[in-house]
Every structure is written in C-alpha cells, then in structure tokens.
Design brief:
The complex is a heterodimer of chains A (113) and B (115). By secondary structure, chain A is mainly β. Chain A is 0% helix and 55% strand. In chain A, strand 7 and strand 8 form a beta hairpin. At the A-B interface, strand 5 of A face strand 5, strand 9 and strand 10 of B.
Chain lengths: 113, 115
Amino acid sequence: AQSVTQLGSHVSVSEGALVLLRCNYSSSVPPYLFWYVQYPNQGLQLLLKYTSAATLVKGINGFEAEFKKSETSFHLTKPSAHMSDAAEYFCAVRGSSASKIIFGSGTRLSIRP
Amino acid sequence: DGGITQSPKYLFRKEGQNVTLSCEQNLNHDAMYWYRQDPGQGLRLIYYSQIVNDFQKGDIAEGYSVSREKKESFPLTVTSAQKNPTAFYLCASRGGLAGAQNEQFFGPGTRLTVL
C-alpha cells in the first residue's frame, strides 16, 4: 500500500534561512510524488511533482525537491525563506488506485523575521 | 479562465439538517474528488468519481452522498447521519488517464460549521 510520512508537523525558520521539509514515502509501484502548498482558508496549490523524468525537481516559488529511491525520500527545500512562504505543506504519493492520491498529514512552516 | 469553484465559502448548518456543497470545474477533467480536512489530520478522501454517472466511496464516506450527473459538477451532500460534520471541505479534479502522472487541481474550499 502507498503511504506518506511527513516528519515534523511544525517547522520554524528565520527569514533568509534554508527551508527543509521532510517527506518519506512507501509505494508498491513506481512512485509519482507531489508537494502541495496551502495558505490559510484556501485550497491546495501544486508546488512540484516527480514523475521519474529527473530526480531533482524544480517547482514554483523557488522550491525544489530531490527524489532519493534508496532513502524513499522526497524532501522539499528552498535556499532562502521568505515571509510569504509561511503556509501548510503537503507531500503526496499516487495511490494503488492510480486515480487517487495519498496525502501526508502536513507540515506547517512558520517564518521568523 | 479555467478552474474549480466551490460555493459557498462559509456555510452554517443546524444539527439534523442536510446541506449540499457545490463544486464546479471548467477544466474538462473526467475525475473529481471530495476531501475533508481537519486540523492536524491532512486530507481524507470522502468520495471520488472517475466518469459521469459513476462514483466510488473513499475512506470516510459514511454520512455523505454525491452525484455526478454532469462532467463539470460534483455536489456533495452532508447528511444528518454525519456525526461530526464541522470541517473544511475541498473539491478537486484531475485530467488524463487514471494511470497518468497528472496532479489534482483544487478548489478554494468550503468551511462548514454545525451550530
């Protein structure tokens, strides 16, 4: 069965510091992986996705993620945090029923001035 | 300007009442989804539909019902049988074949509060 584990329900970094949000997955099929961002009281927006074309995936707003099969990880990073990055971030994996996506429990990112 | 709309943004319901949440998409997507979001629990799938006139239960379908009479519409009814309906409800859609790597697109959500 497919599953996603996001380590850390809350991450706080200073403005300008590195952002690292951790995601580990389990999948019985070649994984398709996604990172979504959600701002308060809004829907989810796709940041980036991994579909086996390249292990380093670049997304919107300066975020990127690296797929590491040996570690079953797909961590999200951004070199320099901005106040506008404060939001909830969800890692997700394609489900065993290919039309479904399995979401992690989310990581709330706070940015300190 | 393609996208997904959900209405209303905020909804208040008295206990014992049924209420219907609207979801419309003009992306020409075949698949549509309803999720429930509670603080600290991520998204849980309520129902999904891969094609018109067909839908399947998700992980927490009890107390909810849906219909898919048109490709662009996938309304969700929260019935009085749902024990704890206060939550944020998200609708999503997805294009392409079921096995493709396409992502889901989300609407802005409806916050339902039971008084």
